[in-house]
Known about the structure:
The protein is α+β, with helices and mostly antiparallel strands. Helix content is 25%, strand content 42%. The chain has helices spanning 2-32, 43-49, 120-126, and strands spanning 35-39, 63-71, 77-88, 91-97, 102-104, 108-118, 136-146, 152-162, 165-170. Strands 1, 2, 3, 4, 5, 6, 7, 8 and 9 form a nine-stranded antiparallel sheet that branches. A hairpin with a 2-residue loop joins strand 3 (77-88) and strand 4. The longest helix is centred in the first third of the chain and has 31 residues, at 2-32.
Amino acid sequence: xxxxxxxxxxxSALVIGLVAIVQYFxxxxxxxxxxxxxNTSFDWQSVLSGxxxxxxxxxxxxxxxxxxVVNNSDIDVTLKEIDLDVTVDGKSLGYVELGEEVELxxxxxxxxxxxxxxxxxxxxxxxxxxxxxxxVYKIRGNFVISASVFETLNYPYLLVxxxxxxxxxxxxxxxxS
Length: 177
C-alpha cells in the first residue's frame, strides 16, 4: 500500500511539473511575439544612392542604419543576433549584423545604431544600375530574440523602399503600449 502511495505522489508531481513547463513556454512565446522593429530614418538610402558617384566608394566601411525595436511584453528580452541582407533591384549590396547582444527592457523602445556593411564585389556588380532611378531597396532577414536560456525566436523583418517611398515594412505592431 505504501508503494502505491509513493508512485501516486511521484506521478502527480511529474504531471504537475510537465503542465507547469508547458504553460511557461506558452507564456514566454506569447510574450516574445510582442516585439516590433521599425526603420526610423531613410538617410541610409540617400547614402547608398550617392555611393557610386563618390571617390571613396571602395573604402566605405558601412552605411549607418538606425532601427527602433519596441518590446511590448512584460519581460526583458535579449536581442541575440541580427542577420539582414540588403539588396538593390534584386541584387545583393551588403548585410547588417549585430556586434553584441542588446538587452530590450520590458515595455520600452530601444534604438539600434547599426551599419550596412557593403561588399566591394557587390557594389561593382550593381554598377550603373544604382544611378538609374527608381531603385527598389530591400532589407530582409531575421532578428534572434531570447527570453531565457531555453527559448529563442527568429523574428522576421522586411523593409521595401521604392525610390524614396516606403512601400512595405513587415515586423509587428510598433506602438508602445
